[in-house]
Request: fold
Amino acid sequence: MNTPSASAPSPYLAPDDLPLKGVRVLEISHMIMGPATGMTLADLGAEVIKVEPVEGDRTRRLKSAGIGYFPVFNRNKQSFAVDLKSAEGRKLVQDLADKADIVLENFRDDSLLQYGLDHASVRARNPRAIYVSLKGFLSGPYQERTALDEVVQMMGGMAYINGSDDRPQRAAPSVNDILGGQFGVIGALSALHERARTGKGKYIRAGLFETNLLLVAQFITQFELTGTPALPFGSKREPPWGVYDLFTTKDGARVFVAVVSDAQWRTFAATFMPAGWAEDARLFSAIDREAARPWVVPAVAEVLKNWNSADLCEALEKARLSYAPVNQPHDLLKDPHLTQGGALMPTVLPTGEHVSTPALPLEFDGRKVGKRADPPQVGEHTVAILKDLGLDDEAIALLRQHGKIGG
Reply:
């Protein structure tokens, strides 16, 4: 993978310049939504302590489609491996919660009550704590239900609109988990800002189902305004622009081309189409071109099939038109924009394997927030965290001997 050279300025902020430096987060979570929230806070500079069972978060052991969960969402964190079911373990995690600025979790409502780590218990001991719960559903009749990304995609219309007439199809990425986690971050940062004024924490909840609602809202409004349900994207649908399609090139590749404004159409027609197309009165406006799609799109396809995909992309780039080759996710490992801009970061897993993980998609004064630490070994920081709590070597050894801690 291409990475920024040692002599080039770093594309990342220095650790001391990270905006959340000095903020302490206790993460009690698993799978994706909670870890994605914790990762974002950690990337932004917070000290994030990830509470794991003695044997480790089970996402460490997932295979197949789940094998990327732990590597992607757990960098920049400290691992504290503890038996939360034991009285000693509960007390240790409670002590950490009492010192935290933010406590985040993504378990069922009241499941942490038995450990004294529910929001009411934590905030009773630590009124300044901001408690962030990542849930399947926010307040309402479904609040007690469990949920997964695919569950809310099915019930929330996303799988329908993403599929075909006869088969709903989930969006492959865990879009609600990841975006829902970012709403947890937004809530936490808002509460931090408010706490600077009031001195008090807040109880924040972010929901998978409600995240899905936001993502399909445009189709709901489309129905309310037109009375016509949106067609599934896998069915025959008509885009609102004359040229907004995939085209097959001479070498068998496919390139998506989007021509949405009148100025873009004139540029596209003058660059690629036969003489006279740019001045054709039947194609003067976007509404005209949308109505003409039945004959315009085949005509454009007939022209573009004579181009090699690389030459077509180069010509579209030169004309400053929107386009995209159809890539597979792993093709992004070779994308020069991502590799040279620091958006992909070399990461070493606890197994010793090397992968590339994405930086957060934002910059501060032109610099990204990077990776300070690889995903940790199970309990890698347990001893250091316990010593920070005031335990000595003898007490730590006794906890380990009785299986109360790991690492």
Observations:
- The radius of gyration is 26 Å.
